[in-house]
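Hi R.,

Here's the chain you asked about this morning:
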Amino acid sequence: MSFRHFLLVALLAGLSCAASSRAFAQGYLSSPEWQEVGTLGALNHPVLPTTYTAFFFFDAMHGIAATTSPIIYYIADPSIGKWLPATIPSGFTTVRMFRFIQGKLYAANDGADALVSTDSGKTWAFAGLGLGNANDLYADANGTIRALKDPMKSFARIDTMNCVAIGGGSLFVSSDGGLNWTTSVTGIDPLSLGAFGDPCHDVFICPSMWGTAALRSSDSGKTWQDILTGASPFPEYIVGASSTCYENDSGGMFRSIDGGLT
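And the predicted structure, written out as tokens:
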């Protein structure tokens, strides 16, 4: 994803189901309203980077963003209106995903191990878990933090046991919290990424073969149906939290608040 001088973020005004607290662990928030949150580029970084690889927001005004520099930025004081550079170790070039797991913030990256922060993203260190070259991170049913690796790129779950992953043109499902994976769907656009687990409706939504539709499952990933989204036939990216799902492609962005039905 690429932005110029600002980042638009969305916040859900109120979570709509008892299970929604799980959505925060997935690393995304959502909202019917959009606002500008700071200027990307720190006070002491006059040249703004142009390519951003991962975002995470704690609330409407506090978040972190990674660039290909590599730099990780954070907002500590929204009144400043700027993102500040975090302290990071060397040994990686790209953060691929931020996840909040078991009270700590983790960053999947292309280095020898995942990064971890215990101060809301201001300082980072290698986690010491040996989770190298990770596309995403998650805790399995036993609480062990695992790396999602090629061909799997994006991870989502609706509860502790039922998870999906997508990548390499295939959709993978797990019913044991990510300990074991099976291929569920093939022939998906390999350039499409992202996966959404709706814990309120027990629904998964993932990219499909054509950008005009998305794949939806209401039985924990056992079966999948194509649903028309109104998007253009381009590679798509799907993300969301609670019961709000977003689909983005080069033609625009689409939003569903009813478990992907409309």
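The helical segments are 21-25.

Let me know if you need anything else.
M.
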